[in-house]
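Design a sequence for this backbone.
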C-alpha cells in the first residue's frame, strides 16, 4: 500500500511540474487615437521605453481653390482656365496632394460666323483713265468678279452688296454752281444678296454706270452702313476701293476742298464704323503718283508746297504700318488683284487660331514649406514637361507646355509630406501651401500673363500626452493555465481511485 501511495505522489509532482504556472500579459504599445475630425492619427514621438508620449497632426485650415483665367490679350475674352486645388489630404500621414489643371476652353472646331460684305467702289470720272493700257475701272471690276468667286467657293452663303460713290456737279434754281454733299453722292447698286449671278451682273452695272467728277467717300461709307442687317451674329466687312482721296463729305454743300473739314469728316466716319464693330479694308490705288503735289490741295506747313497725294491720304487713312482703322493699302493698279484676293480674302476667311502656345506655369512655395515638407510628384504631367525638383533659388517648379489645343486639358499633381524633424516653430501656424502661381502664354500671336496668390492652407499641431503611460521594464509574472492543473488533479484522482479498487479486489481474493 505504501508503494502505491508513493507512486501516486511522484506522479502528481511530475504532472504539476509539466504545467507552466507563470505567464506574461501582452500589452499593445501601438496606441492610436482619433483627432477632432474623426481621422486616425499615429503617435510619432516615443519615450525611451517605446511608448508614445505625444502626437503630431496635420490639420487642413482652408481648402482654397486657386482659379486663374487666361484672357485673349486683344479682347479680354477668356480662352483658358487654370485651377490649383487640394485633391487629397491625409492627416495620419501628414500629407497634402495638390493638383494643377489647365484647360483650353475654346471650341475644337470653331464655326465661322456668317459674313456680310459691302464693296464700296469709287465711280468718279477719274476711274475711266488707263494704267498700263487698262482702265482703272476694269482693274476694279476684274478683281471684284474674282473676289466674288472666291467668296462663294469658301462660304456656304455669303451676303454681298455693292455701293458706288462720286458726285456730279449741278446747278441750283438760281443758276449757282453747288455740290451735293449728301448721301445722294452714293448709290446703292445692290443690297445684300447671296446670289452669285445677281452680284456679278451688278458689278457690270457699276462699270457702265453714271459717273461724277467729285469723290465723296463718306457718302459711300454711310450708305453701306445703312444697308447692313442688324444681325449681331454676323461679321460685317467694308472693302473700299478708290483712286484718290476725297474732296467732298457730307453736310458740306458749299465746300469742295481737300484736307481740312473733308479729311476730318471722312476720318471720323472710318473711326465710327470701326467702333461699331465693322471690319474696314481701305484700298487707295495710284501709289505711283503718291509723291506728286495736288494743285488743289492746301499748302503743307512742313514743305511750304501743296500737299502731296500721299500726305492727303495719310491725313485720313494713316499708313499701311499704322492705319487709322483696321487695314489700309496704298498700291498700284496692277497690285489690286493680289491685295484683294490674297491679303484681304485671307483675312476675311482666316479661321482663328484657338491654340494656347508657349505656356510657362511657375508655382512658388513659401520657405517654411520648403524647409519642413518633403516634395514629390504624384505623376508626370500628361502634357508638357516639368522641372525635376524644386528650384531653391526662388522656391518654384516650372511647368512648360509648348502647345495646348482647343478643348485639351493638362494636369499635374504633387505631394507635400511633413518631415519627421520639422521645426517646432511652425506648430499652430497657418501655412499657405503656395505663395503664387504665375502663367505666361501666347494666344493668337499675342502674349499674355495671369497670376494668383490664392492657396490651400494647413496647420501643424503638436499634442503632449496627458495619460500616464509608465510600464514595467519587464513583463509582470502571472499564473495561468488553470485548465492544465484541473486536468492533472482529475487524472490523479482517477488513478488513485483505480488503484484503491484494485487493492480491495485483491483482499477479497
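Sequence:
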Amino acid at each position: 500500500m505504501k508503494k502505491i501511495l508513493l507512486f501516486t505522489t511522484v506522479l502528481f509532482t511530475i504532472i504539476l511540474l509539466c504545467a507552466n504556472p507563470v505567464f506574461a500579459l501582452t500589452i499593445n504599445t501601438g496606441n492610436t487615437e482619433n483627432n477632432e475630425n474623426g481621422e486616425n492619427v499615429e503617435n510619432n514621438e516615443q519615450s525611451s521605453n517605446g511608448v508614445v508620449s505625444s502626437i503630431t497632426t496635420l490639420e487642413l485650415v482652408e481648402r482654397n481653390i486657386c482659379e486663374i483665367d487666361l484672357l485673349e490679350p486683344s479682347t479680354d475674352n477668356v480662352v483658358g482656365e487654370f485651377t490649383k486645388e487640394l485633391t487629397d489630404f491625409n492627416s495620419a500621414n501628414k500629407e497634402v496632394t495638390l493638383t494643377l489643371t489647365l484647360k483650353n476652353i475654346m471650341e475644337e472646331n470653331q464655326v465661322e460666323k456668317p459674313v456680310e460684305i459691302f464693296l464700296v467702289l469709287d465711280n468718279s470720272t477719274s476711274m475711266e483713265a488707263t494704267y498700263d493700257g487698262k482702265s482703272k475701272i476694269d482693274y476694279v471690276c476684274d478683281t471684284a468678279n474674282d473676289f466674288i468667286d472666291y467668296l462663294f467657293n469658301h462660304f456656304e452663303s455669303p451676303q454681298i452688296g455693292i455701293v458706288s460713290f462720286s458726285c456730279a456737279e449741278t446747278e441750283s434754281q438760281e443758276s449757282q454752281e453747288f455740290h451735293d454733299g449728301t448721301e445722294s453722292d452714293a448709290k446703292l447698286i445692290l443690297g445684300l444678296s447671296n446670289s452669285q449671278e445677281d452680284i456679278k451682273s451688278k458689278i457690270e452695272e457699276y462699270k457702265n454706270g453714271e459717273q461724277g467728277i467729285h469723290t465723296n467717300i463718306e457718302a459711300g461709307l454711310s450708305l453701306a452702313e445703312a444697308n447692313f442687317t442688324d444681325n449681331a451674329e454676323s461679321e460685317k466687312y467694308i472693302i473700299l476701293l478708290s483712286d484718290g482721296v476725297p474732296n467732298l463729305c457730307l453736310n458740306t454743300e458749299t465746300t469742295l476742298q481737300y484736307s481740312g473739314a473733308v479729311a476730318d469728316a471722312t476720318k471720323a466716319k472710318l473711326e465710327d464704323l470701326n467702333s461699331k464693330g465693322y471690319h474696314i479694308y481701305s484700298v487707295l490705288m495710284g501709289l505711283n503718283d503718291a509723291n506728286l503735289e495736288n494743285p488743289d490741295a492746301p499748302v503743307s506747313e512742313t514743305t511750304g508746297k501743296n500737299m502731296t497725294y500721299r500726305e492727303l491720304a495719310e491725313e485720313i487713312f494713316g499708313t499701311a504700318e499704322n492705319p487709322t482703322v483696321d487695314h489700309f493699302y496704298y498700291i498700284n493698279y496692277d497690285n489690286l488683284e493680289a491685295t484683294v484676293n490674297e491679303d484681304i480674302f485671307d483675312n476675311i476667311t482666316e479661321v482663328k487660331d484657338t491654340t494656347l502656345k508657349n505656356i510657362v506655369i511657375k508655382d512658388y512655395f513659401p520657405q517654411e514649406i520648403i524647409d519642413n515638407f518633403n516634395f514629390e510628384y504624384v505623376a508626370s504631367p500628361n502634357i508638357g514637361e516639368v522641372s525635376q525638383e524644386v528650384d531653391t533659388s526662388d522656391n518654384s517648379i516650372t511647368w512648360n507646355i509648348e502647345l495646348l489645343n482647343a478643348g485639351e486639358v493638362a494636369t499635374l499633381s504633387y505631394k507635400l509630406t511633413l518631415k519627421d524633424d520639422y521645426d517646432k516653430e511652425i506648430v499652430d501656424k497657418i501655412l499657405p501651401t503656395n505663395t503664387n502661381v504665375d502663367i505666361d502664354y501666347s494666344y493668337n500671336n499675342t502674349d499674355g500673363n495671369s497670376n494668383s496668390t490664392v492657396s490651400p492652407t494647413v496647420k501643424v499641431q503638436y499634442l503632449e500626452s496627458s495619460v500616464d503611460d509608465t510600464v514595467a521594464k519587464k513583463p509582470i509574472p502571472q499564473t495561468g493555465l488553470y485548465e492544465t492543473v484541473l486536468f492533472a488533479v482529475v487524472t490523479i484522482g482517477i488513478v488513485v481511485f483505480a488503484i484503491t479498487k484494485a487493492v480491495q479486489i485483491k483482499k477479497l481474493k
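The chain has three domains: 2-25+475-508, 62-108+355-423+432-457, 115-349.
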